[in-house]
């Protein structure tokens, strides 16, 4: 008889499963956290202007929204004329996205953004907001997105460094706690554990992400190191403390092109 104590049971769960389950549990209140849902009016116009600057007109082109969450970005890109597929790892997020998108023709699929399982060169544009900082293997993810993107297509990343805080951000953070500070202790501990194990545990800085995109074969990078119009539009939702903290954060947009040859 085998001594079970000598061979302890091992779990097949990995960090990707933990990330999926964490965001699944966040889905119910996701749109209630400031900065997730896109407000009508000035904020929607600011996001639309950013997307149009980097991606051009939709014109029926196929666009993949990675880590689509509750569908806010996917639906805005649909309004801009893209033929949109949203992809997310968390089924509860997808349920909410599909409910919002009913009748629009936007499609939502469940898959890991680092392993999309989509055909080669099937998308003319790829967009992702606040995903890169959570990636386990960004080099593999960027290679995957390069594969899925059609030659001449554009990838747009909107992200930030949520680890390294300026002195102003740290001060204001004590006065205006982040959504993570309002979590129960268990959820906050799960969030901290995940952040400690992802690739960009030291912060997804603009220059680091841009360098990895170049290594993956992307060219014609356009760097937008500040999201001023979006920050200003969101300020009315946040209140002055949170708005000032958001302006002090290292948030950015990067677009990059898959060469035609």
The CATH homologous superfamily name equals Vaccinia Virus protein VP39
Helix content: 40-55%
Main β-sheet description = 7 strands, mixed
Stretches where pLDDT is under 50 for at least 5 consecutive residues are: 1-11
Q: Pairing-aware structural class of the strands and helices?
A: alpha/beta
Task: Give the overall pLDDT as a whole number.
Answer: 88
Q: What is the CATH third-level topology name? A: Rossmann fold
Strand content: 15-25%
**Radius of gyration from the CA trace?**
19 Å
- What is the spatial order of strands in the main beta sheet? 3-2-1-4-5-7-6
Number of domain modules: 1
Number of E-type strands? 7
What would you say this structure looks like, in words?
The protein is 40% helix and 19% strand. The chain contains ten helices and seven strands. It is globular.
Architecture blueprint of SSEs:
Blueprint: H1 15-26, H2 42-55, E1 62-66, H3 72-79, E2 83-88, H4 91-100, E3 107-110, E4 123-129, H5 138-148, E5 149-161, H6 167-175, H7 185-195, H8 206-215, E6 219-224, H9 228-238, H10 240-248, E7 250-257
Parallel strand pairs: 1-2, 1-4, 2-3, 4-5
Antiparallel strand pairs: 5-7, 6-7
Helix pairs in contact: 1-7, 2-9, 6-10, 9-10
Please name the defining characteristics of this protein.
alpha/beta, about 260 residues, single chain, seven-stranded mixed beta sheet, disordered N terminus, 7 strands, 10 helices, Rossmann fold
